[in-house]
Amino acid sequence: MTVNGARSEGVLFGVGLGPGDPELVTPKAQRAIQRAAVVAYPQAPRGRSFARSIAEPYLRPDHVELPLVFPVTTEPDEPAGGYERALAAAYDEWAEAIAERLRAGLDVAFICEGDPFVYGSYIYVHERLAGRFRCEVVPGVPSFCGAAAAAGVPLAKRDDKLALLPGTLAEEELEEQLASTDAAVVLKLGRTFGNVRRAAQAAGVAERSLYVERATTSRERVELLPEVSGDVPYMSLLLVPTADRSPAGRRRPARRAQAAVTVVGLGPGDPAWLTPEAHAALCDADELVGYGPYLERVPHRPGQRRHPSDNREELARARLAVALAREGRRVAVVSSGDPGVFAMATAVCEALDRDGLAADVELEVLPGITAMQAAAARVGAPLGHDFCALSLSDRLKPWAVIEERLRAACAGDLVIAIYNPASRSRRSQLERARALLVELRGTETPVVVARALGSEDEEVTVTTLAALDCASVDMRCLLIVGSSRTRVVARPDGRTPLVYTPRTY
Q1: Is 229 left (phi over 0), alpha (psi -120 to 50) or beta?
Q2: What is the pLDDT of residue 244?
Q3: pLDDT, tens digit, for every residue of 72-118?
Q4: pLDDT value, residue 81
Q5: C or N terminus of the chain, fewer CB within 10 Å?
Q6: Measured at the alpha carbon of residue 329, what is the angle toward residues 335 and 256, in degrees to the nearest 5?
């Protein structure tokens, strides 16, 4: 920082990032990160930093990053207080490294998951530097608030006492605390999980306790404590809600008098693309029905049953959902993307129609972001003018129909979003479609190839019909074939080109 042209000391910001979802990073926290020249964060000895992964969308290329590594203590017979001494020495080193930047006039953002003052590593740096430098603390959403939201269970109400407990307490003390309070949160599980479980059992609260792991992230997991086995990660906690708000007794919306099936669109892959409406329906469901890999994208919740099936069993899957609904169960059928676009809403409608149940079973369809919308957004606006969507799968319609529709789309000069372009058993259809499109539209027609949208494996390529590598395309891909008006604008530094279809002729 500079004051009247002269360099002064920098400001230390203790920034809480929330429990894991980058969208839960507050605007104030974002501004503090953007203001800082240096971003410091705790880091595991193997180079992992949960805090950095949360803040990554808000980091600039010119940020100076300052990883602060925790000490390694793996000896089984470590002397009493050994780790505490190692930690104290590490905090001294961290504080001095930050002080060096502050004295140089650089603002430093110390980022940490959750809230900086709730069992946060920042506390120990703050204690060492607050008397020497200007420090500002930006609160964040605590992990247990994110966990309660993920579990859908309020922790406490009215005059209830809520205890915030570390799992590192002695087992007897933890038992006493759990038995004497209305509701509790136990943090710092990991190696302490065995002791915590035994304490909860002894205190008589295990049956209503919820284990929550990596709340608000794509790896979120919620389970009843008795159902959890094996080792658990450090980024986990235990919720003990008040007795009348436990999973077994929590109040839920009144059941509909009529049997009902809800078909939920998950979006293409990124959990951030799931709508709040869809999330609420998934939380409320007793039964989840869907294609196995799609069900795996839905966090596990206590009390829910899952019914995975093969992708070629859509009608059977729909009939199972209807049967469960007629038994009085809350049923959610999951679909990738939007359930009404080559997906499960059609199958459920067909099941109701064929079986004469349309008047007896209520159907609710909750829309989701389609793969073609996500693919288009990644490159600009190729669907900016008239377009159509077409599936190349000839399992349910003959190839002659597909070819006729491709010809019609080309005759109308429509941008074409192509679903189901190829699979392991269908390799010739895309080559035949490409040959036809080249004939009708030309070799230089732009093509967007989007693979595994919203996942870690996402790839988006802009090519042409002439250069399209059909052998590399599979069921995880969606193609957008441009019209005669679609433009491709090159961008520097290896960035994906801008692709758009003007709305004027």
Answers
A1: beta
A2: 55
A3: 654 444 444 567 888 899 999 999 999 999 999 999 999 999 999 99
A4: 55
A5: C
A6: 100
Confidence of residue 1 (pLDDT cuts 50, 70, 90): low
Q: Please give the residue that has the higher pLDDT: either 396 or 348.
A: 348
Q: Among the ranges 81-85, 449-453, 491-495, which has the highest mean pLDDT value?
A: 449-453
DSSP 450-491: EESTTSTT-EEEEEETTT--GGG--TTEEEEE--TT-EEE--
Residue 383 tokens read as 């669907």
CB contact burial 167-189 (16+ within 10 A = b; e otherwise): bebebeebbebbeebbbbbbbbb
Q: Which helix (H) or strand (E) holds 351?
A: helix 344-354
Residues 123/125/126/128 CA torsion (nearest 10 deg): 130
Architecture field, domain 259-369: 3-Layer(aba) Sandwich (3.40)
Do the beta carbons of residue 21 and residue 144 sit within 8 Å?
Answer: no
**CATH architecture classification, 2-141:** 3-Layer(aba) Sandwich (3.40)
What's the token pair of residue 428?
Answer: 């010739």
- Residue 309, strand partner residues: 291
User: Alpha-carbon distance 114 to 142, whole Å?
Assistant: 4
Phi/psi-derived region of residue 287, left when phi > 0, alpha when psi is between -120 and 50, beta in every other case: beta
The phi and psi torsions of 492 (rounded to 5 degrees) equal -75, 175
pLDDT digits (tens, 9 = 90+) for 280-339: 889 888 899 999 999 999 988 777 899 999 877 899 999 999 999 999 899 999 999 999
Tokens of 136: 């500002």
Contact 442, 434 (CB under 8 A): no
CB atoms within 10 A of CB 238: 28
| Residue range(s) of every CATH 3.30.950.10 domain in the chain | 144-245, 372-500
Domain limits, CATH 3.40.1010.10, in the chain? 2-141, 259-369
Q: Is the pLDDT of residue 423 over 60?
A: yes
Amino acid making up residue 205 = V
Which has the higher per-residue pLDDT, 280 or 421?
421
Residue at 400: amino acid letter: A
Provide the H-helix boundaries in 355-480: 371-379, 399-411, 428-441
- 204-217 pLDDT per residue, tens: 999 889 999 999 98
**CA-to-CA distance for 467 and 481, rounded, in angstroms?**
13
Tokens of 308: 């995975």
Neighbours of 58 (CB within 10 A): 20
- In the structure encoding, which two tokens stand for residue 348, read together? 């459920």
Rounded Cα–Cα distance for residues 427 and 368 (Å): 29
Domain formed by 144-245, architecture: 2-Layer Sandwich (3.30)
CATH number of 372-500: 3.30.950.10
Quickly tell me which residue has 């007795």 as its tokens.
Answer: 243
